[in-house]
Amino acid sequence: MTQYLVAIHLPDGYDPAVDEDDATRADIAALNDEMKAAGVRIFVGGLQPVSRARSLRIKSDGKVIVTDGPYMETKEHVGGFWVLEAGDLDEALEWGRKAAIACRAPVEVRPFH
């Protein structure tokens, strides 16, 4: 079995307390329950707002600098994720489809090495 990352992409400024209604939260909770019951969920995590991110970069002189914000400047960021164990990519994509519906957001599915 291969492990897959199922990442939820959210727009900058997204605030679950404001942008998620009770129906969305219920759908996400139901999906988590379904993943647990199917035995595919390894780990799940929601991330703090992108404003809380810090990026570390190594400079040519070998020093590491820390800057506020995400590594890449984009209009979307990873807001949460699941690590699943699935039999194949098709199964992982099916869970990703369910995640996109429950979260009402774009989802990326990617296998681990």
Topology summary:
Blueprint: E1 2-11, H1 16-19, H2 22-38, E2 41-46, E3 54-58, E4 64-68, E5 76-86, H3 89-103, E6 107-111
Antiparallel strand pairs: 1-5, 1-6, 2-5, 3-4
Helix pairs in contact: 2-3
Protein name: YCII-related domain-containing protein
Organism: Devosia geojensis
Family: Belongs to the YciI family.
Task: Please tag this protein with its features.
113 residues, alpha+beta, Alpha-Beta Plaits, four-stranded antiparallel sheet, two-stranded antiparallel ribbon, 3 helices, 6 strands, 37% strand
User: Hey, roughly how much beta strand do the residues contain?
Assistant: 35-45%
Q: What is the highest CATH level, the class?
A: Alpha Beta
CATH architecture: 2-Layer Sandwich
What is the mean pLDDT?
92
The sequence of SSEs as H and E is EHHEEEEHE
Using only C-alpha atoms, the radius of gyration works out to 16 Å
Task: Report the uncertain regions.
Answer: none
The CATH topology comes to Alpha-Beta Plaits
